[in-house]
Every structure is written in C-alpha cells, then in structure tokens.
Specification:
With 347 residues, the chain is mainly β. It has helices at residues 2-13, 333-338; strands spanning 32-36, 45-46, 49-58, 67-74, 77-82, 86-91, 98-101, 105-108, 122-128, 133-138, 143-147, 153-157, 171-176, 182-186, 197-203, 214-219, 225-231, 237-245, 251-259, 269-271, 273-278, 287-294, 300-306, 316-323. The chain is built from two helices and 24 strands. The longest helix has 12 residues, at 2-13.
Amino acid sequence: MRRLLIVLLLCGLAPGMWVRSRNPPPNHDQAITVKALPLALGCCMLGPFRLEAAWQLTSRNSDFGSYSGLVRIAPGRLKAFSDRGHSLDFPDPAPVANAVQSEAIIGSIFAEQGKSRKNRDVEAATFDPVSRRLWLALEGSNLITRHGADLGRQALSAPAAMHFWPPNKGPEAMVRLRDGRFIVLAEAFPDWFDNRHHAGLLFPDDPAEGAVPQGFTFGGPEGYRPTDMAQLPDGRVLVVMRRLLWPFPVRASARIVLADPAQIKPNGLWQSTELASLTSPQPVDNFEAIAIDQARDGKIIVWLMSDDNRAASQRTLLWRMTLDPALLPPRSDKQKAHDQLARPAIL
C-alpha cells in the first residue's frame, strides 16, 4: 500500500513524465538563415591562418544539422554531409552579412538509408573536381562509398583493414589526394593509455572499388582526435583535430595540424605539426569538417564547419579563413621531389 501511494503521488506531481506529445511533422523548408557572428578584439590571426568571417547557419528543415563533411563543388558553392545521411548544398555566404539563403538544397544521400544510423552515419567526404565524383566514409558500418554528381551511389566497399575499428570511433577523416591515393584516419585512440595516436590507412587507389591499403599510425596533439582533412596545393594536408571539454554542457576545443603524405611509411608513424589552436573568445564549436579552395589570386581559402549534434548547446558554424603559404613550415627538397603533383583544378 505504501508503494502504491508513492507511485500515485509521483503521478500527480509529474504528469508530464507519463504523457508525451507527438513528434512534429517533418519540415522540408529549403531555406537556411545565415547570421554573421562578431569576432573578438585582436582577431584574427590564428597561426598562419587569418579568420575573415564566421557565420551561424540555421533552418527549420527537419534534416538540417549534424554536419561532419564538407567539400567545394563549384565556384562559390559548398556541400556539407551529415551523420544522419543528409546533404546541404549552399552558396558561399561571404557576399552577405545576415540573410535568408533561398538557394540552399537540403536532401537525403541514401535512398535506402532506412532507420539504422549505421547505414547513413557520414563522418567524412572528399571530392574530385575533375571527375566530379564524391567519396563518403560511414562510421558504424565502416564503409566507404562513391557517388556521382547527383549523389547516386556508384560503388561501395567495407575494407577488411577497417573491420575492427570501433563502431562509434571508426573512419572519421578522409581525403583523396590529387595523385589518386586516399588517406583514411580512425577517430579512436589505440588504448586507454595512449591519447595521441590513431590508426591510418593509405589506399593506392579507389577504396570503394576494393583497393587494398597499407596501414600506418597517425600522431597528433595529446587528447585530440582527427575529424576531417583536406589537401593543400603543395601536396601536404591539413587535419582538423577535436577535443571535447567536460563537464556539461559539452564544449569543444580544436587544433589544425599539418602533415605530409610523402612521409607515410608502411606500419610507420606519420607525425603532424600543430599550426593553430581554435579556442574562445572566437566563436568555436564542434568542428568536424574542412574544405580547401585555391582562389585565382593565389589565396588559399580554408572552410571549417561544426557539427551541432542536434544539441541545444551547440551550433552549426561556418568559418572562412585565408592561409598564407609563406607562413607554413618549409618542405625538404626530398619531400618536394616526392610530390610532383599537378596543380589543383580551379573551379
């Protein structure tokens, strides 16, 4: 009887615990709002990068948010990919300060994605501007898929070398190099006592077609995990590294590191050099996506995008930075000779 009275009392005090409202109907509004954010005093040099602008993106669309991959697909146009299997095709917001973008396209990537997140958890994207093909890395299922310009899937592979990567800390960063090779990095640390190293794979060709990779170990800043990567015009790559800060609400700190693919050796250690720390007072969030663009005037433009995790305490941010190549650590003559690659296509 005493227990019954306690249950009845709880029901009377908290009726909301027992009555749930229905989920709102899906919203397919294609508009996104772009809000320019103020930058702190003393802005905006972050190592060799200059932060030129930062925006917060919002939308009423039910499929908006959680972006973990970013590519530049055309002049003045970017495409982001979410860990919920959706894409956001939108214009470069640099010409506007605060506006509603009517030219955005929010859609699904996988027609057969179903309800299981592991079938659509896109964590990295890389793009070939020549063939206009796109590759996506799916965490959870540890898959790599290739898609055409219309996002139609062309090929899929589950590399055996990724089979035992943790389901929630698998392929998190991926880049297609201009010579046709691919680099994939795992988010996970190797064990409880090592918080600097991550498993890496170097594919000699298209991983979605079953190319067999060589393994290596990637070394980054202590406590930081790779979330995305993109190749610079000189052949080296920038890697975004993220660390979650506790307690609640969860906050994030980020680093950008530089690494040279010419230094990858089978089963060896691929070391990186830290270039910049991304922390407050600038508008910082859970950065998980990076894209690089070389403008016609020679400037290198670096885009960063954050994953809001559908959390009230996090935001979808977009940063636009410029990079001065003269401020980067120099490459050795041996490294330069190893990387006689064609200049990137200017879209």
